[in-house]
Design a protein that fits this description.
378 residues, alpha/beta, Rossmann fold, five-stranded parallel β-sheet, 13 helices, elongated
Length: 378
């Protein structure tokens, strides 16, 4: 009986310890756990896997130097396939595993679905790629930060490029009906309608995953659009461009960082040539970028993919904030993220009170000879 009482007491104590640790009140864990959430399988895995690898490389280097707050950093990796309905389960798993913060998610819709769960449990989430403006501008997610500029800035750049550089007038605006693609398209449409030089000749959503987009391609042709601005991801963009070019349409195609990925070029093949897409500014000359990309090649035997630098920066910024805060508590981390700076492949960054990274922006790229090249804006 006496031994049973001892066992029960120990079990109760452990349960209390686990509850307090999971809520960040007592930090007696042997490691600092960081969740990494995103698309690690499926059509959009090429966006999520680079984030996992970036986090792994940063953590490997930091752990080799003694870790953070004298502890080793442990990654807890969960796949959400970039789907909101999966992301809620992913977030619940990460919370249950006792993570102290999260790198991710990757897609805006999945990020939005997960953020409420993180907010309720007071966990910081830093995304390298979720660009929907509402995530920082609505005030609904004070626990959210990102190392990429928002879609209103991206849409503004696309419209300015179309009107000021390419001197176009008649524009068709398409989107994939998702939080990311539709949100960007709505901003682009609004900017175009405010400009007397421009005419939106078609505005329409397409169904993601469809095999045939001939109906909307025919609408583009009938509208006599000089260009298409598309909000969405590379699977749909590659099909649209391919079907347009096979119909001998030379309509200019302008898209976003959901398309500015080598997978788009591989899938669209020869039809990718000439396509424009906005994406994070070129930081290839940054010494930390050069070193991190080489580390990726040495470790994984391949070039780093989409949002790699943004994810690398997010991981550094988060762990730097924990170190500077001297704590894994939510309030301490959030304060450090907005008051401390970190040296990253994106430059020396911090975050504003909304959660956006200061000094991070977009550039316009074009597929030239099978690869994206940055376009100089004049």
């Amino acid at each position: 009986m006496k031994n049973r009482w001892k066992i029960s007491a120990i079990a109760a104590a452990m349960a209390i310890f686990m509850v307090f640790t999971a809520n960040g009140k007592v930090d007696a864990q042997d490691t600092i756990k960081i969740g990494v959430a995103g698309a690690h399988s499926g059509d959009l895995a090429s966006y999520g896997i680079p984030t996992v690898r970036a986090a792994e490389l940063v953590v490997k280097e930091i752990n080799a130097k003694g870790g953070v707050l004298g502890k080793q950093v442990e990654l807890v990796i969960e796949d959400d396939v970039c789907k909101p309905e999966v992301a809620t389960n992913t977030a619940t798993k990460l919370v249950g595993s006792g993570v102290h913060a999260v790198i991710g998610h990757i897609c805006s819709g999945a990020t939005k679905a997960a953020l409420g769960i993180y907010k309720d449990t007071k966990l910081v989430a830093i995304s390298p790629s979720a660009t929907n403006p509402e995530l920082t501008q609505s005030g609904l997610y004070p626990n959210f930060y990102r190392t990429i500029a928002s879609d209103d800035a991206q849409a503004r750049l696309e419209v300015d490029f179309a009107l000021d550089v390419l001197k176009l007038k008649k524009i068709a605006v398409l989107h994939d009906k998702g939080d990311y693609g539709k949100g960007l398209a709505e901003f682009a449409k609004g900017f175009l309608e405010e400009d007397p030089r421009a005419e939106v000749v078609l505005y329409e959503g397409i169904t993601p995953g469809a095999v045939d987009y001939s109906a909307v391609v025919q609408k583009i042709k009938r509208s006599e659009a000089e260009a298409v601005i598309f909000g969405g991801y590379h699977p749909e963009a590659s099909k649209l461009v391919t079907q347009m070019r096979k119909r001998k349409m030379d309509t200019i195609f302008i898209s976003d960082d959901g398309v500015k990925d080598d997978t788009f070029i591989k899938v669209a093949g020869e039809y990718a040539e000439g396509v424009y897409a906005t994406g994070p500014k070129d930081v290839t000359q940054n010494p930390m970028t050069i070193a991190s990309r080489q580390a990726h090649m040495d470790t994984y035997g391949s070039d780093a993919g989409a949002f790699f630098e943004n994810a690398y920066a997010a991981t550094i910024a988060l762990l730097n904030a924990i170190e500077k805060a001297g704590s894994t508590e939510y309030e301490a981390i959030t304060k450090a993220l907005t008051t401390e700076y970190a040296e990253t492949p994106l430059g020396k960054i911090s975050f504003d009170e909304k959660g956006d990274a200061i000094g991070v922006g977009f550039s316009v790229y074009q597929v030239q000879n099978g690869q994206y090249a940055e376009i100089e804006m004049k």
